[in-house]
Amino acid sequence: MKRWPLLLLLSIHIWHGGDLLMGSAVAQEKSAAAVPSFGKDVRPLLKSKCWRCHGEEVRKGELALHTSAGIRKGSESGPVVVPGESAKSRLYELVRDGEMPPDKKNPLTKPEVEIIRRWIDGGARFENEAATKPEVTQHDIVPILLLRCTACHGRQKREGGLDLRTRAAMLRGGTSGPAFVSGKPDESLILKRLQREEMPPRQRLVEAMVKPMEASEIEKLTRWIALGAPEAADEPDVAGTPADPLVSTEDREFWSFQRPRPVTVPNVAHAARVRNPVDAFVLQKLEEKGLSLSPEADRLTLLRRASFDLTGLPPEPAEAEAFLADDDPRAYEKLIERLLASPRYGERWGRHWLDVAGYADCEGRREQHLPRPSVWRYRDYVIRSFNADKPYDRFLQEQLAGDELADYEHAPEITQEIEDNLVATAFLRMAPDPTWANLTGFVPDRLEVMADSMDVLGSGVMGLTFKCARCHSHKFDPIPQRDYYRLVAIFKGAYDEHDWLKPQLIGYGGALSASFGERYQPHVTTTERKRIDEQNVALQRDIDALKAGPQTAETAKQINELAAKRLPEPRLFTLWDRGEPSPTYIYRRGDYQISGTLVHAGPPAVLTDGQTPFEFVPPWPDAKSTGRRLAFARWLTQPNHPLTARVMVNRVWKHHFGQGLVKSVGNFGKTGDRPTHPELLDWLAQEFVRQRWSLKEMHRLMMTSSVYRQSSQRGSEGEGERERNTNNTAAGSSPPLPLSPSPPLHQDPDNRLLSHMPLRRMEAELLRDSLLLVAGQLDETRFGPGDAVTVRPDGLVLSGKRRSVYVQQLRKHPASLLESFDLPAMNPNCLQRAESLVAPQALHLMNDAAVRELARQFADRVQREAADDPKRQVQRAYWIALTRPPSDEELTACLQTLTALTEQWTKQVPAAEASRKALVTLCHTIMNSASFLYVD
Amino acid sequence: MPPTTDTTFNAQEGGMKKTPDPFTRRSFFTSVGAGLQGAALLHLLGDDLFASEPKVATDLRARPTHFPAQAKSVIQLFMNGGPSQMDLFDPKTELDLHHGEAYFNKIAGEVENVTDAGALMRSPFKFAKHGECGMSVSNALPHLTKHVDDIALIRSLFTTNITHEPALYIIQSGHMPSGYPTLGSWVVYGLGCECQNLPAYVVLDDPLGLPINGVENWHAGFLPPIFQGTRFRSTGSPVLNLRPEAADPPEIARLQRDLLNQLDRLHQRQRPSQPNLDARIASYELAARMQMSATDALDLSQETRQTQELYGIGREPTDSYGRRCLIARRLVERGVRFVQLFINAQIWDNHTGLATDMKAACDRTDLPIAGLLFDLKQRGLLDETLIVWGGEFGRLPIAQLPKDKDERKAGRDHNKNAACCWLAGGGVKGGTTYGSTDDLGFAAVENRVSVPDWHATILHLLGLHHEELFVNEHGLKEKLTGVQSARVVREILA
Predict the structure, then answer these.
(1) Which residues, other chains included, contact A165 with Cβ-Cβ below 8 Å and sequence gap of 6+?
(2) ipTM of the complex in this document
(3) pLDDT, tens digit (0-9, with 9 covering 90-100), for B202-249
(4) What is the nearest CA distance from B126 to chain A, expressed in angstroms?
């Protein structure tokens, strides 16, 4: 109601102005005098429609439209008015599309929108106000030249001796002289070339991966030169000074942006169940609901659970016997130590990290998938790092900035450490990358690759979703758009869309290929290089000797054989800073053709104190490196960083207990889940750092807790566990437990409070590796190039006998068995695997020829170990596959079926053959059974 | 696990987002009612960004629609390579007039193969008006012309990339990068399937080879893998591992099934309240049923000679595609939700030999498609089936010349600015021609239809609202239609 007078006033004003403007649109378009005046036409409009949110007091999106300076400056993402170009002006777009003012309240009328358009197209001039900033500066020009010209006139190539990256370089010019003459567009070489459409040369557009310059861009360049090529002072915008107005103190108070707080371990009623603080924190929450932990699981269940958790493989019957026979009260703790020391540990936990990184043996996103030779060194590095219990802070520093940790170029010797540093940076190169092919190698394609890498880093390591901020400020988390570009700027020294190293293969496949392409470095350890050189020299000597002698068919064959033994030139797939990053401009709405504000490298403002600038220096004197990533890695791995330790302990927790304390493991922001046990998460995060970021300490802590050792039984009507519990006694020194009634389901329906351990289906790799192990067929050769898969014409992808982590990971051809059981497609990575339950899985396990062959081999093994007695065969099969004896009912069912199967087969084959075939079917059935696939 | 509590309901409503009329969330709530099924759907589709536990459907049970559906199932006739609009559905007299004139410099940035670019080129085909609606179709498609009154033609589709791979990702998944769920995946994610004996989303690829992007054309992206398309081979065993390579005698197989069932029930009895264990036992039962159903669905010998001839089965060049069209009919008859048909390589990618090669592509597909439309109609199935025809982009009005520069062998290069596509069947206003291109057919100018618009329209006909079909992924509300607003092309709806 109150609004009426104002509205009335407005509409009169509009009517008046509108009338004038509507008079003769055609005539006015031709007349320059008809350009609306800022003071008379535009300003009153802005005042009535926009100032409420974009004025002196409120500046949403940092946009203030009450002064000409504010209008020129634009919003957080850059200018909103591009003089002469309404189509590129955000202000015009938003009012035209009715998006502003928001909620369709009081929108601009068509004539009003026209006023804005025509004012902008007329040059967006402000009368009576001295221009505080030149109309066009280098910030308008540099992005255009980077996009259109520097592919051939920049850091990598300098055709005609010309570098167009900066004003100074342009004036220095090339062999034909300076690129432009200040103030004289007509005499400027660059404009002549552009106007004559000589540059960029049409026939080389695809090869150089650039598009021609647009007419409006040439016009802008002309204006800049005419104005004398003015340069605006490039104010260093270091994160924190001044404090980012888009990130408030309240924003910083969100739980995950606060440093973990010291917490006291609570006292609980069920004190007898408390083995370590983990138990106290979990029990506290359970007791609040009148619940407690479930009874302890039996020993064999614990053995199987711990083996799968730490090694990804089931225990062998002999291990089970030894464990049952060990009456040391610390038998269980000793078991955990033994499993942690197993080389299989790194293969299991390395795989978890490879999911985070998005590991693949090929590039992707094109019809043909370019191989990534030697990327397996990264996989091996990850596995070795886990086995060595490399401190997590160091592990991250290597992966984010390994090339800046030590001088590899001038090192007298390449040590394993230096090689590891370089190999580790492949973490940042895991994103699917189509930019090796001409048509998918343009700037937008490169930006996509960079965005994927930022996504891997953000979600996997920082628990933050940066993806939204690429196009606009995050809608839910305090991540302004410029934070995304600041993060991008940290990586610019290595990841530069205007100075791109293509994934490519040069001479790949030859025995002594000279190079693998731009993304590879030769710095393998001096020891490895020496070994390779020695072998190749020795081979060459033998070859030469043979060549010197008489040439027969036999010597030719020998020479060929020797030549085939030559070791290929080793290369590292890696990422490194080249020391000359292009400037980073915000891309408005993520559009690479609309550059906004220049930003500098820095971490997200919400994770800073808003005062300390982000500083970096080259890592060593004369380094060809900016030091940006190293500074970032150090910032990220500060002991009290709010996210780094929390995100990682949460991941470890998820892999042990089925779901994270923060369920959304890749999103600790506002749209993510809140921690179920915030104190426990903080305590673990701090304990992790106290234990010098040791992951193995975290396993010890979690796995020796009573929470981990409880049964997976869900409470309800039955007490099914009782029967099996009688088979073996509870583990270790745990106090005798009353079989307390399990908690009612509705109190903890999703087991978020951990009133029992989850029942878990084997992940794809666990299933495949276990099938191989049980059949006695697992090839435990470690490390080296991926074990090639075979693609059958019908689409089935067959894998060999090595552990799944060593099977070649091709994006297009995942091994069928693994894919059926939810091996993720890495696009770009996977933080939470799906667990589907569908008929094709049953079809695969029942009918697949390779699985049936493994069943036959499993049966052979049972026969070898248990001879011909059916009862012993069933028992042995159970121990091998399920780490336990069969129950009476199971034994009866198996024996009856075995007899019936043998009878049936006897009708068709001789008796000995019949009982063998019956055993194969039994073994195949066990491999299909829920007992095999589900881990208690 | 269908959510049954009212709390879910309220939590959802509390965080409601505004959506355009007439399908606001509120009206959606009212229309689905508060039944158990409704709640299940809300749970599936209404994952609010603030909900503490985002739920994603992980089964293929049939789910209610957002609003009444016009079609129950989809047959997507995908035309790999980018069919040429001005040679099939979009006659351009200006091209005849300006034939041979230079035009390259005006569109240089839009040409993929710049070195081969020639002058403006008229169509080697002749157009005529057909049916009661008088739709213009060229003489390259003589059989389809008999069914124009059943199809709604869009002449103003456009996309944003001129290279096959990205353009295919866009048309299949709405996004240029790979890794997003395809249209079919979204549809079965949203609707589930009425038939549990067959996969919900079946792909009939060409035995001669996979299309560009291979299996990514039916990938489920970040949706659970059960929503990805299942390839049915049109010869031999239709599904991988449907049967063992060396099958056991039936009695042995029965004993094995019984033992497995017995062991799994013992296992399940000791672990009460674990719904996954029940579902697992059911999945083995379904696998056994699928062995029967899939074999039955693909057994074309059950069809009469007459029906087979309708699809061009038993003669060249239509036999292969005709079989797939007939199988598609048999699948939707049995309740399969989404069938996607491919043809090998890129027969519509006519960079050269437009007059011959594109004609060959027409000859392989025209009769089978006409047969499919006729057959569905005579069986009363066309009203509930949506037929979708189109490729990943259109082609340029200028010629692309072969290496020897022989103009008689000229073709056309890719064009992202204009393409034709059509819909037929449930809910479609037959005989409609919608949108238009400029005089030369270079770009859609009037009533432009973006790929998200196209997707939104297909979802709409199936009773799904494109803004309401989403999952939370990486902090984003990911939808088939992406972040830009999409529009249902109501003008082509019945």
Answers:
(1) A142, A145, A146, A150, A153, A154, A155, A582
(2) 0.83
(3) 999 887 777 888 778 998 888 877 788 888 876 667 778 888 888 889
(4) 34
